[in-house]
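Replying to the earlier thread about multi-chain prediction with a worked example.

Input:
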Amino acid sequence: MALEKLTSARQLTLPVLEEIFHVAEQMRQVCQKHGRITLLSDKMIGLVFLEPSSRTLLSFQSAAQRLGAGIVFIQGVGSTSFEKGESLSDAIRVFSGYCDLIVARLPKSGDAQIAADASDVPFINAGDGGNEHPTQSLVDTFTIREELGTLSHLNYAFGFDPLQSRSIHSLCMVLSQFEDLGFEFVSPPELRAPKSLIQQCQERGVRVRESDRIADLHSPDVIYLNRLQEERFPDRALFEKYRYEYRLTPEQIPTSARLILDPLPRVDEIALEVDALPIAGYFRQARNGVYIRMALLSMLLGRSL
Amino acid sequence: MALEKLTSARQLTLPVLEEIFHVAEQMRQVCQKHGRITLLSDKMIGLVFLEPSSRTLLSFQSAAQRLGAGIVFIQGVGSTSFEKGESLSDAIRVFSGYCDLIVARLPKSGDAQIAADASDVPFINAGDGGNEHPTQSLVDTFTIREELGTLSHLNYAFGFDPLQSRSIHSLCMVLSQFEDLGFEFVSPPELRAPKSLIQQCQERGVRVRESDRIADLHSPDVIYLNRLQEERFPDRALFEKYRYEYRLTPEQIPTSARLILDPLPRVDEIALEVDALPIAGYFRQARNGVYIRMALLSMLLGRSL
Amino acid sequence: MALEKLTSARQLTLPVLEEIFHVAEQMRQVCQKHGRITLLSDKMIGLVFLEPSSRTLLSFQSAAQRLGAGIVFIQGVGSTSFEKGESLSDAIRVFSGYCDLIVARLPKSGDAQIAADASDVPFINAGDGGNEHPTQSLVDTFTIREELGTLSHLNYAFGFDPLQSRSIHSLCMVLSQFEDLGFEFVSPPELRAPKSLIQQCQERGVRVRESDRIADLHSPDVIYLNRLQEERFPDRALFEKYRYEYRLTPEQIPTSARLILDPLPRVDEIALEVDALPIAGYFRQARNGVYIRMALLSMLLGRSL
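Result:
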């Protein structure tokens, strides 16, 4: 794979996806058998997390060390030299002298490309503002394929904030490469999916529907939900109105549904009673984050099992 | 040992204590000889520290790595997804997918049980609010047994805040299982030990005394002190009044005393001149924290030397 | 080498420098060949960073793990027990029970000596307030010797805040041990080098000049620049006046210059266009930080390749 710097879900073409899925599946098996291996025991991974994160951070920490790599790590704007007025480019260029690969979560849209350009070593975007989070899309698609055997010939429902969810946007773009898909966006009227997103999906042959109510869902195979992000509602009353209205309970799940995913954290979008259902896949999805990130670290460093 | 999730000092029964002490003593020897070993080199330990800590955090970091384990680590509420409204249960369930054992320090009383229930892997409570801190009691009792050869047939003095000290409460409950003990609580009148604690100790056959002054101490073998916690005094003037009045100096130490302990940090409760005395055991006590935590990590993961 | 606790650049005598440079050069070669080695695989390094840092912290993390050592780590006043009123001496004494060597960045001038005295294990000062930062001077001198083959018989220019720059002060003192040197301080009139520094350099035989303008620089071989530290200007208008006036552009570089260094972070003191010049050595300088710190960790722990 020619991939050396992963900044955008747009780089996740079908052959790239296939290779990553294949390696991630190998990583799962090797982890279950050996716990940790020495594939990257001569390497140092740099984790630069300048925005809050827990799942992404912990799964990269876990992935690096399950591969035997060492970690250099800085977290939070307050504890770095950025506050002294240093540019992102300078900082990343210096950091890339301390490690063999950089994983960065950065606060502003577009930061990932700036950082990737400045890095002397392979680079992975672990989220840059509201822009991209390509490793999340990999975790999502890998989980669907593991659980349902395919990504094609499926109906997907996405809720409840298709307007603003970075995870939904990226996932739709990656998925839309597959054949014979239906996408259904379910959301309050104020949070409908962007017209441009719908148009791009349709141009790629996806059947698209929109609805305001969970009850209107039309035979989805996969239901992909994401919390309403309180911080993005200009009007708090609106958030309070919708937070419990858009909440999946066991009774509301269409009989067609075979898998429920959520990039987490979960707030109110899925009732706790759903957790006990076999089709509730979000905790397995989180766990897959480790295997996907092990695959990426190995591949970008040119190593294979 | 059946112990898989350690949340409370109540789980530290006599046979459990014996086994932990035995393994901790082995760990001390192996550390002094080899520095680090590979007993857990296939394991990942998750450290979730959502409240300030230094000693407990560092000693778990040291213990895990002296056993060859990798570490995944999050610290501080501000840097996690908890602020987005995620429940503790969800977070711990996800974290337990990234590692083989979770160690958690959590801000609220009762959090440890919630977290232990949510975890898919073994769990250690490293302190939950004002509630429990069972690994501290292990360090305390291990140190006494190492230094004096026994935990029975001893007189213990506890000061200077038996009302509020989590360390004193837990230690009293663990100790009270041993034979022929005297407990003496020394404190300002406002900070007397809770009646319920005294009653439980007496029911288990412990002789209990209370006094207001260090000078009244009645032939203690072990003196266990803990700082007055300024933040818990509603009246600051009261704190200022007592902070230097309750302060152990070399002159005040009864001749019967054979060991002085303090879970640290020390503020004013022990004068610096005490440090030079051979019976000042608090820095050795801190060091024992590593061996106790190595023992716990190994045992909860089912490994032995 | 007798060095066991490195607190001050004054300990960096000529034989000490020679030995460190020699080992650092070995470390560079071994890193380029093997990535990571096991020289310290039985050791734990304690990193205590109570002040913001990125370069120094990351290069020590990298150095320790490239040598195979484990790391125990605390960062930031807010997450430690220091806020509970514990003394620095107590904290360091306890920490030294958890590891085999302590590296500390501390907020106040003089803290490093207090910490070194309290530590039961070898100690490295990674910066204490405005006082000392001896490992930076090592990185600086190592880089000059690597790039120019010698530290003697050279003219050095230092700017643009010789009054307050800890890096410039320490570097001048270390360099002044070498033969046949010229130092030229270039700064706004308000930021001239301290008289005492100039006097000490002259007493050691260094030729000293001062100038207000970059254009007046007198055939320097090495140009060593450091940002104007906004936070140290009582008068913000003054900072704004000088920040772009004292800024090295390619046109301003004297033809005599063979190497440009900067301890970084860079703010405005060097124009981005300078980066492309072969004599721009500051990113190579940052990278050398890993090799120097690998050398120090090994030597203070009595290990050699």
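The longest strand of chain A covers residues 44-49.

Feel free to reuse this layout for your own posts.
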